[in-house]
Design a protein that fits this description.
By secondary structure, the chain is an alpha/beta fold. 29% of the residues lie in helices and 25% in strands. It is built from 11 helices and 18 strands. Helix 6 links the parallel strand 12 and strand 13 (203-205). The longest helix has 13 residues, at 168-180. Bound molecules: zinc ion (2 copies).
């Protein structure tokens, strides 16, 4: 099968490799490029050592299913790239996203076929409606991560939400709150991006031109520690600031203690999703595909994967899906 192999920093190669063996086989129809994929391409990643296939935001068709499975060949499905064990201490505390014993899809999906471990389909594979264009379902996983993030916020009846950074994840947060009818605005330094996001009906501000104190929920969707510090210091009394973007492991935050104590600003973080978020994200997308579909500004054949990564590097795209 054809695969887009990550062979080192800023190096991607189309290769012909052996099709994976497995009882449950999915033919990939599209796979979104995630921020993590981009980071790996640009700087490397301790988790994804080259040569390897990246990509985990995929949907496709069942190519092979075991006897007695509730899926049959041809079924259109989206696959959760991991799910929690459901039994450990973390899972018992409803923290599936932090489960240390997750089951994973064993390979990346920038290729033609992905084989799933035995039994994976019972929890990690979801049937898709046939009447919706498929590409939008590559957004189920990122939206699931957003939903986990929203559970850490305290959005009430009179809340106003501020999203810092209109990358794909920041914009997905904005779409979510827009859909819920919650007042939401985005802060973004890049004028071109601001114009696009405004066209999607979302209030946009350049940094320095926004009254941060008017917002009681803030999502930091950019990996800059100084932004966390700035928004903690300036957010409304009683605000919640969510650190959504990962900072470097050794990085330390220096935060305004006056804001945290006397103004009751809380700081929280979120990472990944639990299976309940994945299911809910799928429901939200099925109910309103057009809203979320706007985020996918480009799709490229797998062969042009390198071009897609370069476009993302230049900040010229929101979400790009690669189609084998
Ligand atoms: Zn992702
Ligand atoms: Zn667990």
């Amino acid at each position: 099968m054809k695969a887009l192999m990550y062979t080192g920093i800023e190096a991607l190669e189309m290769q012909d490799i052996q099709q994976p063996e497995g009882e449950f086989l999915v033919k990939v129809a599209g796979c979104g490029i995630c921020g993590t994929d981009l980071k790996t391409y640009l700087k490397g990643h301790h988790f994804f050592k080259p040569p390897t296939i990246l990509g985990h935001e995929f949907y496709g068709h069942v190519a092979r299913a075991p006897q007695g499975s509730s899926f049959k060949p041809g079924d259109r499905v989206v696959v959760a790239p991991y799910y929690e064990c459901g039994a450990c201490g973390h899972c018992q505390r409803d923290l599936g996203q932090l489960c240390p014993s997750k089951d994973y899809v064993p390979s990346g999906a920038f290729c033609e076929y992905v084989a799933l471990p035995a039994g994976y389909e019972h929890k990690g594979v979801f049937a898709l409606p046939s009447d919706t264009e498929g590409l939008v379902f590559t957004l189920v996983e990122p939206l699931a991560c957003v939903l986990n993030g929203t559970e850490h916020l305290k959005v009430g009846k009179h809340s106003k939400v501020l999203i810092v950074g209109s990358g794909p994840m920041g914009t997905l947060f904005a779409f979510y709150f827009q859909a819920q009818g919650v007042p939401v605005a985005v802060v973004e330094p890049n004028q071109e991006r601001r114009e696009t996001v405004s066209r999607w009906g979302i209030e946009c501000h350049a940094p320095g031109e926004v009254d941060i104190a008017a917002y009681d929920n803030v999502v930091i969707a950019v990996n800059k520690a100084e932004l966390v510090a700035e928004y903690v210091a300036k957010a409304a009394d009683g605000a919640t600031v969510l650190v959504f973007s990962g900072l470097k492991k050794e990085e330390t935050l220096v935060l305004d203690s006056y804001a945290i104590h006397y103004r009751e600003v809380s700081v929280t973080g979120s990472f990944g999703y639990a299976l309940k978020h994945f299911g809910k994200a799928l429901d939200l997308i099925c109910a309103d595909p057009a809203r979320y579909r706007r985020l996918i500004t480009h799709s490229f054949p797998l062969e042009d994967g390198r071009k897609a990564f370069e476009l993302l590097k230049l900040g010229k795209a929101f979400k790009i899906v690669l189609v084998p």
